[in-house]
Amino acid sequence: MDKNIPLDLYRIFCAVVRTGNMSAAAKELFISQPAVSMSIRQLEERMGAPLLIRTSKGVRTTPEGNMLFEYLEQALMLISTAESKFMEMVNLKTGEIRIGASDTVIQNFLMPYLEKFNIQNSNINIKVTNKTTYESLRLLKGGAVDVCFINLPINDDDDLEVTPCIEIRDCLIGGTKFKALSESGIKLKNINKYPLLLLEDMSNSRRYVDSYAQKNGVVLHPIIELASSDLLVEFAKINLGLSFVIKDFETRHIDNESIFEIPVYPPIPPRHIGLVRLRNVPLSHAAMGFVNLFLNDKTE
């Protein structure tokens, strides 16, 4: 038996058995009857045994041919199902996108994109994993998520493709107790004279603020470290200290009544939220659909 039998020969054989004659099979397959007859002869030669019995009324299977037909029909149905499912994913009729991002990025940046993508592609499952920047990158490299939206900058990595999204600015805030500082500002070298409330040091936003301070000869000494930016704002509101937050995400809280922005000298340089994917690793059509939605919106 020849093990390298083309799949088309099996398809033609099953069509002949299913329809009961060569002519009907030829019409179903949109090929000529001689081509069907030739294919059946070729399959029998390669299998090393007759598969069909020709009669005046058509064909019927030999015992071996009947057994082969029963298994081939199941196999061809699975192939057809696989092809259909594949096309559903290609056409965004089904699939899944897995995103890694911090709660701050999800709430203040990703939410409208997730909503828009879900409206346009309601059959696509969206899985969002809430992690810090470096935890999200670890998941990306491990294949647990397709893309990450993170706080930049990050260390250079040849395995990663980074696309800056939106520019963000960090600022210093304080409550009513520190209102005067919102007018006079504060020199960075004097900042440790005031109680500081900062994110935990595993946060990339915290690392960025620390790096900014260190480049200006200052080491920050917080009295409180928290995992949530929202909590930093609430603690600042009750005058527990000063805190660095992302100004673009906290505009609603900096109301100049209970929370004030305090100028810092030298000012903190702006940075970006970034889209990160593995370099040279193709995305699923669902993931690529979301990335394209974002990129197209970004260029408009």
Sum up the structure in keywords.
300 residues, alpha/beta, five-stranded mixed sheet, 10 helices, 14 strands
Largest sheet: 5 strands, mixed
Q: Mean pLDDT, nearest integer?
A: 90
Structural class: alpha/beta
Tell me the number of strands.
14
Shape designation? rod-shaped
Word description of this protein:
Helices cover 44% and strands 22% of the residues. The protein contains ten helices and 14 strands. Strand 1 and strand 2 (58-61) form a beta hairpin. It starts with 6 loop residues before the first helix and ends with a helix. The chain has helices at 7-19, 22-29, 33-47, 63-90, 103-120, 133-141, 181-184, 204-215, 229-237, 285-299, and strands at 52-55, 58-61, 96-101, 125-130, 147-151, 160-168, 170-174, 186-187, 196-199, 224-226, 242-246, 260-262, 264-265, 271-278. With 300 residues, it is α/β, with parallel strands linked by helices. Helix 1 crosses helix 2 (22-29) and helix 2 crosses helix 3 (33-47). The strands form four sheets. It has a five-stranded mixed sheet with strand order 4-3-5-14-6, with helices on both faces. A five-stranded mixed sheet has the order 10-9-11-7-12, sandwiched between helices.
